[in-house]
Write a structure and sequence with these properties.
Helix content is about 25%, strand content about 15%. The chain is built from 9 helices and 9 strands. It has helices at about 1-5, 25-35, 50-55, 95-100, 140-145, 150-155, 160-165, 205-210, 210-214; strands at about 10, 20-25, 35-40, 45, 65, 70-75, 80, 115-120, 135-140. The strands form 3 sheets. A 5-stranded mixed β-sheet has the order 2-1-7-3-4. A two-stranded antiparallel ribbon has the order 5-6. Strands 8-9 form a two-stranded antiparallel ribbon. A hairpin with a 4-residue loop joins strand 5 (about 65) and strand 6 (about 70-75). The chain starts with a helix and ends with a helix.
């Protein structure tokens, strides 16, 4: 049960706009204090404590559940806050972990997933900075081969980014360019824990970037 309690729940404000994610444990805390309600993602009905506890027990073989000695509780996927909290203006933090997500955990030169390192497209020795638009993930072999040169100087082309090709189908110049991903409440969630039900509430910008590369 402890693993289930740490799984993510999508948090919407009163207007059903995505503002964050929280753990199942935190979601139940908000339900019990009345600061939020659970959404049945199939019927779109909001439930308070009594409503959620009165739902039929989930089928153990088909649904995730919190199992106790007395009852099996459904695990919520979406929490709707009682107040109309507006999404905060946030900027995606530049870090190796987030860079890995943006680059799909593959080398941006050869496509391997082994021994990944951070490569500066324009080398630091040439004035390159550690930033979203100048860093990509590269395997040790490609990083060593490129050394202190630009991709053009080393004869190594960056791979086409599927999400950028889809976003700019008629502008090939942007297909290989590193970019700053937009912040989303689900960027920090690992792929196995992403819930299909969340796609119903996330703007297209999230589904084309954060969910695609999470």
């Amino acid at each position: 049960m402890s693993n289930v309690l740490s799984e993510p729940v999508l948090v919407l404000n009163k207007s059903w706009k995505p503002i964050d994610t929280c753990t199942v444990a935190s979601a139940f805390s908000k339900l019990f204090t009345g600061t939020g309600r659970f959404l049945d993602v199939e019927t779109y009905v909001l439930h308070d404590v009594v409503g959620w506890l009165s739902l039929p027990e989930p089928d153990d073989l088909k649904e995730r559940a919190i199992r106790t000695s007395h009852v099996n509780l459904r695990v919520p996927e979406v929490l709707v806050m009682s107040s109309d909290v507006q999404p905060k203006r946030r900027v995606m933090q530049f870090s190796r972990r987030n860079l890995l997500k943006r680059d799909l955990h593959i080398c941006q030169y050869c496509g391997t997933k082994e021994q990944l390192t951070v490569d500066h497209v324009l080398p630091k020795t040439k004035g390159g900075t550690s930033s979203w638009t100048n860093c990509v993930m590269a395997c040790l072999k490609c990083n060593a081969a490129k050394a202190g040169r630009t991709p053009e100087e080393a004869g190594m082309a960056l791979r086409v980014r599927p999400e950028m090709k889809e976003r700019y189908p008629h502008d090939e110049s942007k297909w290989r360019v590193p970019y700053r991903p937009a912040w989303s409440p689900v960027f920090k969630v690992s792929v196995p824990l992403l819930r299909p039900s969340w796609f119903k509430f996330l703007p297209e910008a999230y589904t084309k970037t954060s969910l695609l590369i999470a």
